[in-house]
Design brief:
about 500 residues; alpha/beta; Aldehyde Dehydrogenase, Chain A, domain 1; Aldehyde Dehydrogenase, Chain A, domain 2; six-stranded mixed sheet; 17 helices; about 40% helix; binds nicotinamide-adenine-dinucleotide
Length: about 500
């Protein structure tokens, strides 16, 4: 670390702590009011940087969720009728405020999650972009189709489904929450948000900024708490019509079961074990850059990380040797330092999980070609496993850390078998200069999203989501409105069609 980056890191840390000072007591936002839990229970919010307590949050349960859901139900009656133009203006105002507080949001996110300032500095900009994108679609959200039939005019329209539950994970909480909340509000839904208990700070800021922008009370409600209590209560509440959930696949199964008695509509963005497939004819330098970036950025705590590297055997040794060298130069350290690539992982329990895979790799006979260390606290170095087989746990299970498993393949058919040979199917990355193969392979991949000769570049209109155990449903553009809205068909008779006379 140069003395310049040390002083920048210190300045960032001091600013983050100052911003966090006014968030030391996190309360729920219910019906426009900030409240503690009826039980008085709270939980500690800990920064993964040094495991110290930075805040206490009210621990919500069924009682708080019930009040939040009722508030959302009441607010829905007016919010659904607010003209689209007015909703649009409001959502743009929220985006303005997010942009105005970009530095604060970034630094709070670093403090709360351990993600590095290098990557978090764009978190607020991306969140604002989510609000702007859906703000501009408020006016077309209700659009439907005209389906003329003999003697009839059929037309469809879309209407907001009602109050929805949004349950989010800890990895990039601010950006992810806006990705769900912005389309819900644009559609005319009201929201009960249950943020992750390991990183609740910026959810509170988002709620504050929404109020400041003029969002009517009860339209966005935020209930803090644990998954098994607050989260569960959201999924079980009768007034909540749908659940947008981002998190682990196993949690998705629980939510589906919990929501079954009230027939919840669900939208799941779950785990991944995404392959990056590199053919020998690819631009290997760019493939290497992308492979390194897509696993070691965002602490590897990223659902779309390229955590399985499949490389054609003729270039496997050279490619993985170069990758190991690059991994050794990826910097793990103070997340407030702009020169740091990997910050501390979210929680000691998560570090334990990630490090257990280093032990598993050795037990299963793979080679730890780079990293595999936990030098201090929650810090884990950029790790590469080589000589792996697809049936090993390190190739099959989502590790959700800066850990990459490399496997060689001999031909296209084997590459496809390996790429698809996991329970997950979120994203896939494909590197080849052969155009026909690129399309053929992309069509064969069991994944919701495929990037060809590209890292994960998002275009907000495109469908985002997974297949298999990686999810149900798609987000983005109009796809989001399919979830947050009901399609209604109106059939109008244009003349006098026959009506059978009974009892005449
Ligand atoms: P998690 O499933 O443990 O928790 C996510 C949220 O669900 C938290 O708010 C938690 O409190 C809540 N929750 C837990 N149990 C619940 C229950 N029984 N009922 C209702 N809510 C409950 O996930 P995590 O550890 O916070 O996040 C990491 C996971 O998220 C990884 O698997 C990652 O791949 C996934 N993820 C997916 C995407 C995507 O778009 N596909 C994006 C980011 C993260």
């Amino acid at each position: 670390m140069s003395s310049q980056t040390i002083s920048q890191a210190q300045a960032n840390r001091e600013r983050a702590l100052r911003y966090a000072e006014r968030l030391r007591e996190l309360r729920h936002l219910i019906g426009g009011r900030w409240e503690g839990s009826a039980s008085g229970e709270t939980f500690e919010v800990i920064t993964p940087i040094d495991d110290t307590v930075i805040a206490r949050a009210a621990a919500g349960g069924p009682e708080e969720v019930d009040r939040a859901a009722r508030a959302a139900e009441t607010a829905f009656e007016t919010w659904r009728g607010v003209p689209a133009k007015a909703r649009k203006r409001l959502l743009h105002r929220i985006a303005d405020l997010i942009e105005a507080h970009a530095e604060e949001i970034a630094l709070l996110e670093v403090l709360d999650t351990g993600q590095t300032v290098r990557f978090m500095k764009s978190a607020a900009a991306r969140a604002a972009e989510n609000f702007r994108f859906f703000a501009d679609r408020c006016e077309s959200a209700a659009d439907g189709r005209s389906l003329p039939a003999d003697g009839f005019l059929n037309y469809t329209l879309r209407q907001a489904i009602g109050p929805v539950g949004v349950i989010t994970p800890w990895n990039t909480p601010f950006m992810l929450s806006t990705w769900k909340i912005a389309p819900a509000l644009a559609a005319g839904c009201t929201v009960v948000h249950k943020p992750a208990e390991w990183s609740p700070l910026t959810a509170t800021r988002l709620a504050e900024l929404c109020l400041e922008a003029g969002l009517p009370e009860g339209v966005l409600n935020t209930v803090h708490g644990f998954g098994e209590t607050a989260g569960r209560a959201v999924t079980e509440h009768e007034a909540v019509r749908a659940i947008a959930f981002v998190g682990e696949s196993a949690t998705g199964s629980h939510i589906m079961a919990q929501g079954a008695p009230t027939l919840k509509r669900v939208h799941f963005e779950l785990g991944g074990k995404n392959p990056v497939v590199v053919f020998a004819d690819a631009d290997l330098e760019r493939a290497l850059d992308a492979a390194v970036f897509m696993i070691y950025s965002l602490n590897g705590e990223r659902c779309t990380s390229s955590s399985r590297l499949l490389v054609e055997r003729s270039v496997y040794d050279a490619f993985t040797a170069e990758l190991a060298e690059r991994a050794k130069r990826v910097r793990t350290g103070d997340p407030f330092d702009p020169a740091t690539d990997i910050g501390p992982l979210i929680h000691p329990k998560h570090v334990e999980k990630v490090m257990s895979y280093v032990a598993a790799a050795r037990e299963e006979g793979a080679t730890v070609a780079a990293g595999g260390e936990n030098p201090a606290g929650n810090f884990v170095t950029a790790t590469l496993f080589t000589g792996a087989r697809n049936d090993m746990r390190i190739s099959q299970e989502e590790i959700f850390g800066p850990v990459l498993t490399a496997i060689p393949f001999d031909d296209e058919a084997e590459a496809l078998r390996l790429a698809n040979g996991v329970r997950y199917g979120l994203a896939a990355y494909l590197w080849t200069r052969d155009v026909a193969r690129a399309h053929r392979f992309a069509h064969g991949l069991e994944a919701g999203m495929v990037w060809v000769n590209s890292q994960n570049v998002r275009h907000l209109s495109t469908p985002f989501g997974g297949t298999k155990r990686s999810g149900i449903g798609r987000d983005g553009g109009d796809y989001s409105f399919d979830f947050y809205m009901e399609t209604k068909n109106v059939a109008v008779a244009l003349g006098e069609h026959p009506i059978p006379k009974l009892g005449a």
